[in-house]
Design a protein that fits this description.
The complex is a heterodimer. By secondary structure, chain A is an alpha/beta fold. Helix content of chain A is 43%, strand content 19%. By secondary structure, chain B is of the alpha/beta class. In chain B, 27% of the residues lie in helices and 29% in strands. In chain B, a hairpin with a 6-residue loop joins strand 2 (11-18) and strand 3 (25-33). The radius of gyration of chain B is 17 Å and the shape is globular. The relative contact order of chain B is 0.21. The chains are: A alpha/beta, B alpha/beta. At the A-B interface, helix 2 and helix 3 of A face helix 1 and helix 2 of B. The structure holds zinc ion. Chain B: InterPro entries: ATPase_NBD (IPR043129), Gcp-like_dom (IPR000905), T6A_TsaB (IPR022496).
Amino acid sequence: MNRAEPLILGIETSCDETGVGIVRGTTLLANIIASSMDEHARYGGVVPEVAARAHLEALGPTIRAALAEASVTLDDIDAVAVTSGPGLAGALMVGVGAAKALALSLDVPIYAVNHLVGHVGADLLDTAAPLETPTVALLVSGGHTSLLLVRDLVSDVELLGETIDDAAGEAFDKVARLLGLPYPGGPEIDRAAVGGDPKAIRFPRGLTQPKDQAAHRYDFSFSGLKTAVARWVEQREAAGEPVPLADVAASFREAVVDVLVTKAIAACTDLGVPRLLLGGGVVANARLREVARERTDAAGIDLRVPPLSLCTDNGAMIAALASQLVMAGHPPSGLGFGADSTLPATEIRVA
Amino acid sequence: MLLAIDTSTGTSVAVVDRDGASGELRCLAETGTDDTMRHAEVIGDFIREALAGAGIDRDRLSGVAAGMGPGPFTGLRVGIAAAHAFALGIDRPFVPVVSHDAIAWSRYRAGETRSLQVVTDARRREFAVSEYDGLDDDGLPVRVLGPGLAPRDEVPVARGIRFDATIVSAGAIGMLAELAFAAGRLPLAADAPLYLRAPDVTPSAGKRVLQ
Ligand SMILES: [Zn+2]
């Protein structure tokens, strides 16, 4: 195998995106995503069985499209990489089954890797400035909200905190629904917030009270915020007053963004790590990027945001992480790994 | 020569061959487990063991056959996904087979002569049921009904005998595919899992590491 610049095909099926990426070393050759998001829209959230069915249908065509995009053939591939977890078990299993068989059919090694660490690996692709470590990583999507301390991408990652209830993206979806907006909620809330006053309503910031600092300094909670928005809207309606949609949307979004950025910067400051990396689909939210930029600048923290196409769940990030593992001389995974819906962030590569 | 995979019950992987001259069907290697919870874990090792057991190189395979169910969805998909990917990797056709057909074919091949009702677990207090009327001139099982779902205590009375299966042999899946190929009867089934049931639509609670 080419260990200096390995050609890796990465498969990601942890949630509702079927992602296949191909990278050579740190060069991105293909990043193809088939999303089943439209099928979930009418349920207001990701339905695991619908996602798993869609993965099975999409995987073959997505692999073919990635090979075509990268202008390589399967015979060129040095190793196959796949997300082992965390994620939806039934969805992950489609990717795991396919990746094992693909690796065996090509007689190449397989690397089973961690989805969350993969989000950090995405930042290594096609960039002039290599990822510096240690770095704090804030990963926010419809499926997860996690704060990681990455001392070394392939050998030392620690979970600082994560959501104890809803993921941030899920909070956007739920609040959008109660405001009568369609799924997915992120872009809809953004649209509704245009012209709204983010300070109009002071919605609660979960787990930011002094009493929370001991047990949950870096954890997140968004279910109380969702309830607060619901109650505020109900009270308005009960009083026969109009609901100022723009103000509610802007104030809700501000509460989410404020908590995310405040905790990420606290982690950087507490740990003496002057670097913050963003990842996950919620990075598409312009207000999150804007507030993160302002506050990291003010705190002297270097902010890195990979291109959006690499922030949402994708196979290229999985390939990128495996490529780093190969280049660092780590052995491949055995064939016996499974789908681990709660794979801890410390487990970067599943043995 | 075919690689065959079925995960509609446990996990079964086989390598089969049909002698072009004599028409004799042979199962060169078969490995499996009736464990219905570990399809994703065991599929890789089983494929490797089946190929090693058959003592052949993957280049000699002319296709990959897969049992399309019916069966519990999560496990069923693992085998189908693996078969698809292996076929893609060796650039050979994917051959879908109805898993119940393989069960019926095995019974008839073992000497059964009566009509046969094949019954497998479909979870949710239901069974998946198919009815067969022997083998046709090509040696393929004649399915006259199903596969369909029935509540466990409302399975129609079998016209011949009822056979409750807990294991589907990938060897039988592969040999059926070989027979069908030789008889020019492919495709035997559509390239879609036999779910027989619309998806359950409870949205997920999301991905979480701690709880
Ligand atoms: Zn993700």
